[in-house]
Design goal:
The chain has helices at about 5-10, 45-55, 60-75, 75-90, 105-120, 125-130, 135, 190-195, 215-240, 255-270, 295-315, 325-365, 385-395, 400-410; strands at about 95, 140-150, 150-160, 165, 175, 200, 245-250, 280-285, 370-375. The chain is mainly α and about 475 residues long. The strands form 4 sheets. A 3-stranded antiparallel beta sheet has the order 3-2-6, with helices on one face. Strands 1-9 form a two-stranded antiparallel sheet. Helix 1 (about 5-10) crosses helix 12 (about 325-365) and helix 3 crosses helix 4 (about 75-90).
Length: about 475
Amino acid sequence: MGFLDRVASAFGFASAASPLPLMGEVTPELPLSLQMQRIGGALTPAQVSSIVREADVGYVWQFQDLLHESRQKDGHLQTVLGTRENAIRGLKWQIVPSTDSPRRKDIKVAEFCEKAIRSVGDFPDLLAHLAGAAYHGYAVAETMLDVRDGRLVPCRFGRLAHRRFCFDQERGQLRQWDQSGGNAVYPGVDLQAKYPGKFIVFQPRINGDIACREGLGRVLLWAALFRNWTLRDWLALGELSWKPWRVGTYKAGADKTVINNLRDVLRQMSGSGVATLPDDARIDVQWPKGNAQGDTHATLAGFLAGEMSKAVLGQTLTTEAGSRGARSLGEVHDKVRRDVMEADAASIAACLRRDLLAPLVAWNFGAAAVPEFRFLTADGVDLKAYSEAILNFRKAGLRICASDVRDAAGLRKPDDDDELLDVEVLFEDDAQPAPDAPADEPPADGEPGGDSPPPEAPDAPDE
Protein backbone atom coordinates (compact mmCIF):
# COMPACT_ATOMS: atom_id res chain seq x y z
CA MET A 1 0.00 0.00 0.00
CA GLY A 2 1.44 3.37 -1.03
CA PHE A 3 1.83 6.40 1.19
CA LEU A 4 -1.24 8.26 -0.09
CA ASP A 5 -3.31 5.07 -0.05
CA ARG A 6 -2.34 4.50 3.58
CA VAL A 7 -3.28 8.07 4.46
CA ALA A 8 -6.60 7.83 2.62
CA SER A 9 -7.32 4.57 4.42
CA ALA A 10 -6.58 6.20 7.77
CA PHE A 11 -9.06 8.94 6.88
CA GLY A 12 -11.71 6.31 6.12
CA PHE A 13 -11.67 6.65 2.32
CA ALA A 14 -11.24 3.87 -0.19
CA SER A 15 -8.26 5.25 -2.13
CA ALA A 16 -5.92 8.17 -2.51
CA ALA A 17 -8.03 9.37 -5.43
CA SER A 18 -10.75 10.39 -2.95
CA PRO A 19 -11.71 14.10 -3.17
CA LEU A 20 -10.80 14.64 0.50
CA PRO A 21 -8.62 17.78 0.60
CA LEU A 22 -5.91 16.36 2.84
CA MET A 23 -3.52 19.21 2.31
CA GLY A 24 -6.07 22.00 1.93
CA GLU A 25 -8.20 24.01 4.29
CA VAL A 26 -11.63 22.53 4.94
CA THR A 27 -13.00 25.58 6.79
CA PRO A 28 -11.53 28.71 5.16
CA GLU A 29 -11.97 32.09 6.82
CA LEU A 30 -15.14 34.03 6.01
CA PRO A 31 -15.17 37.62 4.74
CA LEU A 32 -14.64 40.11 7.55
CA SER A 33 -18.26 41.25 7.30
CA LEU A 34 -19.38 37.72 8.27
CA GLN A 35 -16.83 37.08 11.02
CA MET A 36 -18.73 38.90 13.76
CA GLN A 37 -21.88 40.78 14.64
CA ARG A 38 -21.43 43.90 16.72
CA ILE A 39 -23.83 43.78 19.64
CA GLY A 40 -22.77 47.05 21.26
CA GLY A 41 -23.09 48.51 24.72
CA ALA A 42 -26.73 49.67 24.83
CA LEU A 43 -27.85 46.33 26.27
CA THR A 44 -30.59 45.68 28.79
CA PRO A 45 -30.89 42.59 31.00
CA ALA A 46 -33.91 41.55 28.93
CA GLN A 47 -31.86 41.61 25.71
CA VAL A 48 -29.07 39.61 27.32
CA SER A 49 -31.57 37.04 28.58
CA SER A 50 -32.93 36.69 25.05
CA ILE A 51 -29.43 35.97 23.69
CA VAL A 52 -28.81 33.42 26.45
CA ARG A 53 -32.14 31.68 25.72
CA GLU A 54 -31.13 31.33 22.06
CA ALA A 55 -27.84 29.77 23.15
CA ASP A 56 -29.73 27.34 25.38
CA VAL A 57 -31.44 25.85 22.32
CA GLY A 58 -28.23 25.58 20.32
CA TYR A 59 -27.95 28.88 18.43
CA VAL A 60 -24.83 30.26 20.05
CA TRP A 61 -23.33 32.75 17.58
CA GLN A 62 -24.69 35.90 19.26
CA PHE A 63 -23.83 34.51 22.68
CA GLN A 64 -20.24 33.88 21.61
CA ASP A 65 -20.00 37.37 20.10
CA LEU A 66 -21.22 38.81 23.40
CA LEU A 67 -18.64 36.77 25.33
CA HIS A 68 -15.86 38.21 23.19
CA GLU A 69 -17.17 41.79 23.50
CA SER A 70 -17.49 41.47 27.28
CA ARG A 71 -13.88 40.34 27.51
CA GLN A 72 -12.71 43.25 25.37
CA LYS A 73 -14.53 45.81 27.53
CA ASP A 74 -13.45 44.52 30.94
CA GLY A 75 -9.78 44.65 31.83
CA HIS A 76 -10.21 42.38 34.84
CA LEU A 77 -11.99 39.69 32.83
CA GLN A 78 -9.27 39.80 30.20
CA THR A 79 -6.61 39.49 32.91
CA VAL A 80 -8.00 36.42 34.65
CA LEU A 81 -8.87 34.62 31.40
CA GLY A 82 -5.46 35.47 29.93
CA THR A 83 -3.78 34.18 33.09
CA ARG A 84 -5.52 30.81 32.80
CA GLU A 85 -4.83 30.48 29.08
CA ASN A 86 -1.21 31.59 29.25
CA ALA A 87 -0.56 29.19 32.12
CA ILE A 88 -1.13 26.35 29.63
CA ARG A 89 0.55 28.11 26.76
CA GLY A 90 3.76 28.58 28.74
CA LEU A 91 4.07 25.02 30.04
CA LYS A 92 6.86 22.79 28.81
CA TRP A 93 5.74 19.50 27.35
CA GLN A 94 7.01 16.24 25.94
CA ILE A 95 5.71 13.22 24.05
CA VAL A 96 6.64 9.86 25.51
CA PRO A 97 5.75 6.22 24.81
CA SER A 98 2.60 5.08 26.54
CA THR A 99 4.24 2.05 28.17
CA ASP A 100 6.86 1.81 30.90
CA SER A 101 8.90 -0.67 28.83
CA PRO A 102 8.65 0.71 25.32
CA ARG A 103 9.95 -1.07 22.27
CA ARG A 104 12.32 0.63 19.89
CA LYS A 105 9.42 1.38 17.52
CA ASP A 106 7.42 3.02 20.31
CA ILE A 107 10.35 5.33 21.05
CA LYS A 108 10.74 6.12 17.35
CA VAL A 109 7.03 6.98 17.03
CA ALA A 110 7.13 9.27 20.09
CA GLU A 111 10.25 11.07 18.84
CA PHE A 112 8.70 11.56 15.40
CA CYS A 113 5.50 13.04 16.82
CA GLU A 114 7.36 15.42 19.14
CA LYS A 115 9.68 16.62 16.39
CA ALA A 116 6.75 17.13 13.99
CA ILE A 117 4.74 19.18 16.48
CA ARG A 118 7.65 21.27 17.73
CA SER A 119 8.30 22.34 14.14
CA VAL A 120 4.87 24.06 14.00
CA GLY A 121 5.39 27.68 15.02
CA ASP A 122 1.82 28.41 16.13
CA PHE A 123 1.45 25.39 18.40
CA PRO A 124 1.61 27.58 21.59
CA ASP A 125 -1.29 29.62 20.17
CA LEU A 126 -3.22 26.38 19.70
CA LEU A 127 -2.69 25.54 23.37
CA ALA A 128 -4.04 28.94 24.46
CA HIS A 129 -6.99 28.50 22.08
CA LEU A 130 -7.84 25.13 23.60
CA ALA A 131 -7.50 26.53 27.13
CA GLY A 132 -10.09 29.17 26.16
CA ALA A 133 -12.69 26.40 26.03
CA ALA A 134 -13.09 26.86 29.78
CA TYR A 135 -14.78 30.21 28.96
CA HIS A 136 -16.59 29.41 25.72
CA GLY A 137 -17.47 25.77 26.44
CA TYR A 138 -15.60 24.41 23.42
CA ALA A 139 -12.67 25.11 21.13
CA VAL A 140 -12.03 23.71 17.65
CA ALA A 141 -8.92 23.83 15.46
CA GLU A 142 -8.12 22.44 12.02
CA THR A 143 -4.80 20.69 11.42
CA MET A 144 -3.19 21.86 8.18
CA LEU A 145 -1.03 19.11 6.69
CA ASP A 146 2.11 18.87 4.61
CA VAL A 147 4.38 16.08 3.37
CA ARG A 148 7.93 16.18 4.70
CA ASP A 149 10.52 13.41 4.16
CA GLY A 150 7.80 11.06 3.01
CA ARG A 151 5.69 11.64 6.14
CA LEU A 152 2.41 13.47 6.63
CA VAL A 153 2.98 16.15 9.29
CA PRO A 154 1.15 19.23 10.61
CA CYS A 155 2.35 22.59 9.30
CA ARG A 156 -0.21 24.98 10.85
CA PHE A 157 -3.29 24.99 13.05
CA GLY A 158 -6.35 26.95 11.98
CA ARG A 159 -8.24 28.17 15.05
CA LEU A 160 -11.95 28.30 14.25
CA ALA A 161 -14.09 31.14 15.60
CA HIS A 162 -16.53 30.04 18.29
CA ARG A 163 -19.48 31.71 16.53
CA ARG A 164 -19.12 29.29 13.59
CA PHE A 165 -20.80 26.46 15.51
CA CYS A 166 -24.18 25.36 16.76
CA PHE A 167 -25.66 22.46 18.72
CA ASP A 168 -28.14 20.42 16.68
CA GLN A 169 -31.68 19.97 17.91
CA GLU A 170 -31.71 16.19 17.60
CA ARG A 171 -28.81 15.28 19.92
CA GLY A 172 -27.36 18.57 21.14
CA GLN A 173 -24.11 17.74 19.31
CA LEU A 174 -21.55 20.40 18.41
CA ARG A 175 -21.53 21.05 14.66
CA GLN A 176 -19.79 23.49 12.38
CA TRP A 177 -22.40 25.88 11.00
CA ASP A 178 -22.12 29.45 9.77
CA GLN A 179 -25.37 31.31 10.36
CA SER A 180 -24.61 33.35 7.22
CA GLY A 181 -22.16 32.57 4.43
CA GLY A 182 -19.79 29.63 4.45
CA ASN A 183 -21.48 26.43 5.56
CA ALA A 184 -24.96 27.80 6.16
CA VAL A 185 -26.95 24.57 5.71
CA TYR A 186 -28.49 23.66 9.06
CA PRO A 187 -27.70 21.63 11.16
CA GLY A 188 -24.13 21.93 9.93
CA VAL A 189 -21.31 19.39 9.75
CA ASP A 190 -19.92 16.91 12.25
CA LEU A 191 -16.29 17.73 11.43
CA GLN A 192 -14.71 14.74 13.13
CA ALA A 193 -17.07 12.29 11.46
CA LYS A 194 -16.67 13.78 7.98
CA TYR A 195 -12.92 14.50 8.18
CA PRO A 196 -11.38 11.94 10.58
CA GLY A 197 -8.15 13.16 12.11
CA LYS A 198 -8.36 16.62 10.56
CA PHE A 199 -9.85 18.52 13.50
CA ILE A 200 -9.06 18.98 17.18
CA VAL A 201 -12.33 19.36 19.12
CA PHE A 202 -12.01 20.16 22.82
CA GLN A 203 -15.12 20.18 25.02
CA PRO A 204 -13.94 20.11 28.67
CA ARG A 205 -16.11 19.36 31.64
CA ILE A 206 -16.35 22.71 33.47
CA ASN A 207 -19.71 22.94 35.24
CA GLY A 208 -21.22 19.55 34.40
CA ASP A 209 -24.18 20.91 32.42
CA ILE A 210 -25.30 19.78 28.97
CA ALA A 211 -22.90 20.54 26.11
CA CYS A 212 -24.49 23.80 24.94
CA ARG A 213 -24.44 25.20 28.50
CA GLU A 214 -20.90 24.13 29.41
CA GLY A 215 -18.20 26.65 30.26
CA LEU A 216 -17.87 29.71 32.46
CA GLY A 217 -19.43 32.01 29.88
CA ARG A 218 -22.76 32.60 31.57
CA VAL A 219 -21.52 33.41 35.05
CA LEU A 220 -18.73 35.62 33.71
CA LEU A 221 -21.00 37.30 31.18
CA TRP A 222 -23.44 38.52 33.81
CA ALA A 223 -20.64 39.63 36.12
CA ALA A 224 -18.96 41.55 33.28
CA LEU A 225 -22.24 43.19 32.21
CA PHE A 226 -23.12 44.27 35.74
CA ARG A 227 -19.60 45.70 36.12
CA ASN A 228 -20.13 47.59 32.86
CA TRP A 229 -23.49 48.91 33.97
CA THR A 230 -22.01 49.83 37.37
CA LEU A 231 -19.21 51.81 35.74
CA ARG A 232 -21.71 53.60 33.51
CA ASP A 233 -23.85 54.55 36.51
CA TRP A 234 -20.70 55.57 38.38
CA LEU A 235 -19.75 57.93 35.57
CA ALA A 236 -23.28 59.34 35.49
CA LEU A 237 -23.06 59.90 39.24
CA GLY A 238 -19.79 61.69 38.70
CA GLU A 239 -21.39 63.95 36.12
CA LEU A 240 -24.22 64.70 38.51
CA SER A 241 -22.68 64.76 41.98
CA TRP A 242 -18.99 65.49 41.65
CA LYS A 243 -19.29 68.67 39.59
CA PRO A 244 -20.49 72.05 40.82
CA TRP A 245 -24.18 72.68 40.52
CA ARG A 246 -25.06 75.71 38.42
CA VAL A 247 -28.29 77.38 39.49
CA GLY A 248 -29.75 80.23 37.42
CA THR A 249 -32.22 82.73 38.83
CA TYR A 250 -34.44 84.99 36.76
CA LYS A 251 -36.88 87.68 37.86
CA ALA A 252 -40.54 86.93 38.18
CA GLY A 253 -42.44 87.65 35.01
CA ALA A 254 -39.44 87.04 32.70
CA ASP A 255 -40.49 85.91 29.26
CA LYS A 256 -39.66 82.48 27.76
CA THR A 257 -36.77 83.85 25.69
CA VAL A 258 -34.92 85.04 28.81
CA ILE A 259 -35.45 81.67 30.50
CA ASN A 260 -34.18 79.71 27.49
CA ASN A 261 -31.13 81.95 27.14
CA LEU A 262 -30.31 81.44 30.81
CA ARG A 263 -30.57 77.64 30.41
CA ASP A 264 -28.20 77.75 27.41
CA VAL A 265 -25.69 79.80 29.41
CA LEU A 266 -25.75 77.22 32.24
CA ARG A 267 -25.03 74.42 29.78
CA GLN A 268 -22.20 76.31 28.08
CA MET A 269 -20.51 76.98 31.41
CA SER A 270 -19.63 73.28 31.78
CA GLY A 271 -17.22 73.61 28.85
CA SER A 272 -15.99 77.21 28.92
CA GLY A 273 -16.56 78.35 32.49
CA VAL A 274 -17.59 81.75 31.09
CA ALA A 275 -21.06 83.27 31.14
CA THR A 276 -22.58 86.55 30.00
CA LEU A 277 -25.88 87.53 31.62
CA PRO A 278 -28.29 90.48 31.59
CA ASP A 279 -28.86 92.34 34.82
CA ASP A 280 -32.18 90.58 35.40
CA ALA A 281 -30.57 87.09 35.74
CA ARG A 282 -28.18 85.57 38.26
CA ILE A 283 -26.09 82.35 38.50
CA ASP A 284 -25.00 80.58 41.69
CA VAL A 285 -22.30 77.85 41.66
CA GLN A 286 -22.60 75.34 44.53
CA TRP A 287 -20.18 72.50 45.23
CA PRO A 288 -21.56 69.20 46.62
CA LYS A 289 -21.08 68.78 50.35
CA GLY A 290 -20.18 65.53 52.15
CA ASN A 291 -19.81 62.04 50.63
CA ALA A 292 -21.41 61.65 47.23
CA GLN A 293 -22.03 57.91 47.88
CA GLY A 294 -19.45 56.90 45.28
CA ASP A 295 -18.12 54.02 47.43
CA THR A 296 -21.24 51.98 46.62
CA HIS A 297 -20.17 51.66 42.99
CA ALA A 298 -16.56 50.86 43.89
CA THR A 299 -17.69 48.15 46.29
CA LEU A 300 -19.98 46.54 43.72
CA ALA A 301 -17.33 46.67 40.96
CA GLY A 302 -14.74 45.13 43.30
CA PHE A 303 -17.15 42.41 44.43
CA LEU A 304 -17.91 41.42 40.83
CA ALA A 305 -14.19 41.37 39.98
CA GLY A 306 -13.57 39.03 42.91
CA GLU A 307 -16.35 36.72 41.70
CA MET A 308 -14.69 36.60 38.26
CA SER A 309 -11.33 35.71 39.82
CA LYS A 310 -12.85 32.89 41.86
CA ALA A 311 -14.72 31.50 38.87
CA VAL A 312 -11.70 31.49 36.53
CA LEU A 313 -8.71 30.98 38.84
CA GLY A 314 -10.34 29.44 41.90
CA GLN A 315 -9.18 32.26 44.19
CA THR A 316 -8.61 36.02 44.37
CA LEU A 317 -5.31 36.90 46.06
CA THR A 318 -3.14 36.34 42.99
CA THR A 319 -5.03 39.13 41.22
CA GLU A 320 -6.23 41.35 44.11
CA ALA A 321 -4.27 42.10 47.27
CA GLY A 322 -7.33 42.01 49.53
CA SER A 323 -7.78 43.75 52.85
CA ARG A 324 -5.75 41.08 54.66
CA GLY A 325 -3.47 39.93 51.87
CA ALA A 326 -0.82 38.10 53.87
CA ARG A 327 1.91 36.46 51.83
CA SER A 328 1.23 33.00 53.27
CA LEU A 329 -2.44 33.23 52.34
CA GLY A 330 -1.49 34.38 48.85
CA GLU A 331 0.74 31.33 48.46
CA VAL A 332 -2.17 29.08 49.43
CA HIS A 333 -4.35 30.78 46.85
CA ASP A 334 -1.63 30.32 44.24
CA LYS A 335 -1.69 26.58 44.95
CA VAL A 336 -5.42 26.61 44.17
CA ARG A 337 -4.67 28.29 40.85
CA ARG A 338 -2.06 25.62 40.21
CA ASP A 339 -4.70 22.92 40.75
CA VAL A 340 -6.83 24.56 38.06
CA MET A 341 -3.85 24.68 35.68
CA GLU A 342 -3.02 21.02 36.24
CA ALA A 343 -6.63 20.01 35.61
CA ASP A 344 -6.68 22.02 32.36
CA ALA A 345 -3.36 20.48 31.34
CA ALA A 346 -4.60 16.93 31.91
CA SER A 347 -7.77 17.52 29.83
CA ILE A 348 -5.93 19.21 26.95
CA ALA A 349 -3.23 16.51 26.91
CA ALA A 350 -5.89 13.81 26.57
CA CYS A 351 -7.56 15.76 23.74
CA LEU A 352 -4.28 16.22 21.87
CA ARG A 353 -3.46 12.52 22.16
CA ARG A 354 -6.86 11.59 20.71
CA ASP A 355 -7.23 14.24 17.98
CA LEU A 356 -3.61 15.00 17.01
CA LEU A 357 -1.22 12.21 17.96
CA ALA A 358 -3.49 9.26 17.07
CA PRO A 359 -4.05 10.49 13.48
CA LEU A 360 -0.34 11.23 13.03
CA VAL A 361 0.55 7.70 14.12
CA ALA A 362 -2.14 6.11 11.95
CA TRP A 363 -1.14 8.06 8.84
CA ASN A 364 2.58 7.44 9.16
CA PHE A 365 3.02 4.16 11.06
CA GLY A 366 -0.25 2.29 10.72
CA ALA A 367 -1.15 0.09 13.69
CA ALA A 368 1.33 1.40 16.24
CA ALA A 369 0.94 2.40 19.88
CA VAL A 370 -0.10 6.02 20.30
CA PRO A 371 2.31 7.92 22.59
CA GLU A 372 1.22 10.22 25.38
CA PHE A 373 1.29 14.01 25.40
CA ARG A 374 2.53 15.22 28.78
CA PHE A 375 2.68 18.72 30.21
CA LEU A 376 5.51 19.20 32.68
CA THR A 377 3.56 20.82 35.51
CA ALA A 378 5.76 19.71 38.42
CA ASP A 379 8.35 22.08 39.82
CA GLY A 380 11.89 21.33 38.72
CA VAL A 381 14.08 19.27 41.02
CA ASP A 382 17.13 20.81 42.65
CA LEU A 383 19.54 18.33 41.10
CA LYS A 384 22.40 19.12 43.49
CA ALA A 385 20.31 18.56 46.62
CA TYR A 386 18.55 15.58 45.05
CA SER A 387 21.79 13.85 44.07
CA GLU A 388 23.23 14.38 47.55
CA ALA A 389 20.10 12.87 49.09
CA ILE A 390 20.33 9.83 46.80
CA LEU A 391 23.98 9.31 47.79
CA ASN A 392 23.07 9.53 51.48
CA PHE A 393 20.21 7.08 51.07
CA ARG A 394 22.48 4.69 49.19
CA LYS A 395 25.18 4.89 51.84
CA ALA A 396 22.56 4.06 54.47
CA GLY A 397 21.81 0.87 52.57
CA LEU A 398 18.45 1.90 51.07
CA ARG A 399 17.58 0.13 47.83
CA ILE A 400 16.53 2.72 45.24
CA CYS A 401 14.70 2.15 41.96
CA ALA A 402 16.78 3.62 39.14
CA SER A 403 13.68 4.54 37.08
CA ASP A 404 12.37 6.72 39.93
CA VAL A 405 15.65 8.62 40.03
CA ARG A 406 15.64 9.11 36.26
CA ASP A 407 12.04 10.33 36.23
CA ALA A 408 12.64 12.84 39.01
CA ALA A 409 15.81 14.15 37.36
CA GLY A 410 14.26 14.20 33.87
CA LEU A 411 16.64 11.59 32.48
CA ARG A 412 15.64 8.71 30.22
CA LYS A 413 16.97 5.18 30.30
CA PRO A 414 19.87 4.98 27.81
CA ASP A 415 19.68 2.67 24.82
CA ASP A 416 22.37 0.13 24.08
CA ASP A 417 23.93 2.29 21.37
CA ASP A 418 23.83 5.59 23.32
CA GLU A 419 27.09 7.25 24.33
CA LEU A 420 27.41 7.19 28.11
CA LEU A 421 29.22 9.48 30.51
CA ASP A 422 32.16 7.70 32.20
CA VAL A 423 31.48 8.64 35.83
CA GLU A 424 32.59 6.52 38.78
CA VAL A 425 30.56 6.99 41.97
CA LEU A 426 32.30 6.01 45.23
CA PHE A 427 30.01 5.16 48.10
CA GLU A 428 32.77 4.08 50.56
CA ASP A 429 33.97 6.57 53.13
CA ASP A 430 37.63 6.24 52.20
CA ALA A 431 39.95 8.54 54.07
CA GLN A 432 41.39 11.17 51.83
CA PRO A 433 45.11 12.06 52.17
CA ALA A 434 45.72 15.34 53.93
CA PRO A 435 47.04 18.11 51.73
CA ASP A 436 50.70 19.04 52.04
CA ALA A 437 51.40 21.90 54.43
CA PRO A 438 52.51 25.13 52.77
CA ALA A 439 56.29 25.61 52.75
CA ASP A 440 56.18 28.89 54.69
CA GLU A 441 54.24 27.46 57.69
CA PRO A 442 56.21 26.18 60.73
CA PRO A 443 56.07 22.46 61.45
CA ALA A 444 53.37 21.30 63.81
CA ASP A 445 54.03 20.11 67.37
CA GLY A 446 55.47 16.65 67.49
CA GLU A 447 57.01 16.84 64.04
CA PRO A 448 60.76 17.14 63.43
CA GLY A 449 61.74 20.73 64.04
CA GLY A 450 58.68 21.42 66.17
CA ASP A 451 58.58 22.85 69.70
CA SER A 452 57.38 19.63 71.37
CA PRO A 453 59.42 16.46 71.40
CA PRO A 454 58.22 13.57 69.28
CA PRO A 455 56.23 10.89 71.08
CA GLU A 456 58.17 8.03 72.65
CA ALA A 457 58.16 4.69 70.90
CA PRO A 458 55.96 2.07 72.58
CA ASP A 459 57.58 -0.65 74.65
CA ALA A 460 58.33 -3.85 72.87
CA PRO A 461 55.83 -6.60 73.62
CA ASP A 462 56.82 -9.32 76.08
CA GLU A 463 57.90 -12.54 74.55
